[in-house]
Every structure is written in C-alpha cells, then in structure tokens.
Automatic annotation (TrEMBL):
Designated name of the protein: tRNA-specific 2-thiouridylase MnmA
Keyword Metal-binding attributed: no
Described purpose of this protein according to its UniProt entry: Catalyzes the 2-thiolation of uridine at the wobble position (U34) of tRNA, leading to the formation of s(2)U34.
Reactions that this protein is recorded to catalyse: S-sulfanyl-L-cysteinyl-[protein] + uridine(34) in tRNA + AH2 + ATP = 2-thiouridine(34) in tRNA + L-cysteinyl-[protein] + A + AMP + diphosphate + H(+)
UniProt organism field: Methylocystis bryophila
Family to which this protein belongs: Belongs to the MnmA/TRMU family.
Residues carrying the site annotation Interaction with tRNA: H142, Q363
Record has tRNA-binding as a keyword: yes
Subcellular location per the Swiss-Prot or TrEMBL entry: Cytoplasm
GO cellular component, as recorded: cytoplasm
Gene Ontology biological process terms in this record: tRNA wobble position uridine thiolation
Cystine connections: C117-C214
Primary location recorded for the protein, binned into one broad class: cytoplasm
UniProt xrefs under PANTHER family: MITOCHONDRIAL TRNA-SPECIFIC 2-THIOURIDYLASE 1, TRNA 5-METHYLAMINOMETHYL-2-THIOURIDYLATE -METHYLTRANSFERASE
Length: 399
C-alpha cells in the first residue's frame, strides 16, 4: 500500500527545506513516521530518549524505552538512512515522572505517568532539543491529529480509529507546543501502519505494542513505590462504607479505586449480601481502604487541578455557568456528556450528566467538543476529589 501524502508539514516550505525531528521509541508507530517522512523528502533526524535504568526490562516484550527499544530505533534509522541520536534524560525522568508517580500512589491516588512524561519530558525537554537542532517540526507516532481551526490556531483532535486514540495522554500539550508538533498517524488504522512497516522493510513491523508503564515492566506498581517511598507503606484497615472493619491491608499502594480482585477479604463479598465488594475510596492519611458495592463507585462530579485549556479562546473567559463538553475520566472509558464549570485559575469541576464509575483522584479528566471520533480536544486536568452520585455522607467514615 502507498503511504498517505503527509505534505505539507510546514506551510510555505518544501520537504527538502523542512527539518523534522522524529521522537523514535523503537516501536512500529514512530518508526513508520520516520520512514514515511524520509520517503516524502523531509530532512529527518531521529531522537530516542533514554529514560531509565534498563535493568530487567531489557529484552522484555511489551515495555517501551528499554535497551532493546533503543537498539531497534537505531536499526530503523540506519535502514532508512537518517541520523539518530540517543539522549540521556534519566535524571529528569526520575525527578519529573518516577518520583511523582511514587508519591501519588503513596497518597492514595491513581497516577497517569504517561501524561507526566509527555508534559515534562517529550513535549518540554525534547521540544527544546528539537529547537536546538533547528527543527521546523517535532513528529511523534501518537494516534492523534493536529490541524488548523477556524481561528488560525493548531488544534488537537482524537484519532480516526477510536480504539487507538491517545488524546487522553496528551491533554497537557500547550498551544505553543502544538505549533511545532506533528502527528502523521492520526488518520491511520494500526493495520495500515504495520502494512507500511512491512513495505519499508522495517525490522519492527511485527513488534508487539507497549502494554506496561515503561519503568514498571513487571506491572507491579506497588513494588516500585515500596522501593522509592518505603516510609509510605503503612498497614491499615479495610473498612466498609457503612463503617464496619472487614480486615487489614499491608499498604494503600496495593489498591486502586474500582479494584475488585485481591482485596484480601476472602470472597470479597459483604457479610450480609451476595454482591462483590470494590475499592470505593482510599484514605491514605489514615491508612484506610474503603470498600463497598458496585453502585457506591458511581460518581456525579469531580474537582480538577492544573487544568490545561487548548480549546478556542482562554479558559478564564469560559462562562461561569459552565460549558457543555464530553469528558473522559479514564483512558479506557469513552467520553461522556458533562458540564465543565471553571473555578478559578487552573481549577474546575466536571459534572457528569450520567454517573461515571471508577473515577479516581490522580487520574486525568479530559474534555472534548463532542463524543465522536475526530472530536477536538479542549483540554483537561487532574482529578483531586470526587463526589459520589449517591449521598453517602451519613455512612462515610468520620472518625
């Protein structure tokens, strides 16, 4: 198959006069982006970030940024004939991503480190590196689109293939960064990308997609937190929302909101009902894990911090009565109808039209113009608190 024409990446400039830095992770997506742009005649420079101590992650399938991935990126660059650089960002990654991840988990939150990586490393430090290299554009293999809106600003949109859409992890991208960023795969299906990789003769054509957080290749998040913040691992009680103490736990880092399995309560069912129990809330300050039936997970609203607005106009100019949006409170959930209510600089409340489930502090809540594919991303923020759909104030723990 032939690649779709990626021209023009920069208005008024020919491909030969346009330098593009491609963030090459060693996976099939970014490799195809580099090959596609090289074929189109662009001046391509490949950059791979060394983000953490490879350790046991080397050669492990499904983990990004490991030693094998760096070798794969180098091989692809050699195959298509572009210069390739490996940049050591380990210290910055540890400070901005890993330490924050551990602190967030230890405080009872469910962090999204991929957002922090994009926000502080890939689209911040790498952004500056691209500028230093004289780049006219910085391209990545993310499944999103960016194009001009009616006001002449570059805007971010969901990918055409909803199951591949990665816009949830890119809400913190700024308007300034969008002027430099390019996402050539936004209109592609994954099957098309792999077909292109085979046509280009890339060794990564059949390489599995990343599944785990890159610095947690085992998928055991609690082990990372225990190693980085052992003082935060405090045993405590597992408590039903009605106040009954059901058992004990070895640390809140072993639990996330919405979790059903592995609660350490035998059958994980309440004493007087056949319904399974779920983690409803985590009270890290008192080392308590609060559990309840599935309906107790329903959330009517969430308060947000560090809101980033990339929609039309300015966040400060939104009407005080709010704006109708579609909100996505988990990366695995589709956007749902909601109202966005600004509450000062960088803060907002999202009120869901119909209760959402499994909404957890620490995660991102991303806003869209509508609920369909190719919807414009308006921005997002981090969840700092949630409001239960059912008023449980009389039953929630107060002691």
């Amino acid at each position: 198959m032939a690649a779709r024409d990626p021209l023009p990446l920069v208005a008024g400039k020919s491909p030969a006069d346009t330098r593009v830095v491609v963030a090459m992770s060693g996976g099939v997506d970014s490799s195809v982006v580099a090959a596609m742009l090289k074929e189109a005649g662009y001046d391509v420079v490949g950059v791979t970030l060394q983000l953490y101590d490879h350790g046991a992650a080397i050669q492990r399938k499904g983990a990004c940024c490991a030693g094998q991935d760096i070798r794969d990126a180098r091989d692809v660059a050699g195959r298509i004939g572009v210069p390739h650089y490996v940049l050591d960002y380990e210290r910055r990654f540890r400070e901005k991503v890993i330490d924050g991840f551990a602190a967030s988990y230890a405080s009872g939150e469910t962090p999204v480190p991929c957002v922090a990586c994009n926000q502080f490393i890939k689209f911040a430090d790498l952004f500056e590196t691209a500028r230093d290299l004289g780049a006219d554009a910085l391209a990545t293999g993310h499944y999103v689109s960016a194009r001009m809106d009616a006001w002449g600003e570059r805007a971010l949109y969901r990918a055409k293939e909803a199951s591949r859409d990665q816009s949830y992890f890119l809400f913190a991208t700024t308007k300034e960064q969008l002027r430099l960023l390019r996402f050539p795969l936004g209109e592609f299906a994954k099957s098309e990308v792999r077909a292109l990789a085979r046509r280009y003769g890339l060794s990564v054509a059949e390489k599995p997609d990343s599944q785990d957080i890159c610095f947690v290749p085992s998928g055991r998040y609690a082990q990372v937190v225990e190693r980085l913040a052992p003082q935060a691992i405090i045993p405590g009680e597992i408590v039903h929302i009605d106040g009954r103490v059901l058992g004990r736990h070895a640390g809140v880092v072993n639990y996330t909101v919405g979790q059903r399995r592995g609660l350490g309560l035998g059958s994980s069912r309440s004493a007087n009902a056949s319904e399974p129990l779920f983690v409803v809330r985590i009270d890290a300050a008192r080392a308590r894990v609060i559990v309840g039936p599935h309906e107790a997970l329903e959330t009517s609203a969430a308060s947000l911090r560090d809101v980033n607005w990339i929609g039309p106009g300015a966040f400060a100019d939104l009407p005080p009565e709010g704006l109708e949006v579609f909100a996505r409170a988990r990366s695995t959930r589709p956007p749902v109808a909601a109202r966005l209510l600004p509450r000062g600089a960088g803060e907002a409340i999202v009120a869901f039209e119909v209760g959402e489930y499994g909404v957890s502090p620490g995660q991102a809540c991303v806003f869209y113009e509508n609920g369909g594919p190719d919807a414009r991303v308006l921005g997002g923020g981090f969840i700092q608190a949630t409001q239960p759909a059912q008023d449980q104030s009389a039953r929630e723990l107060s002691s």
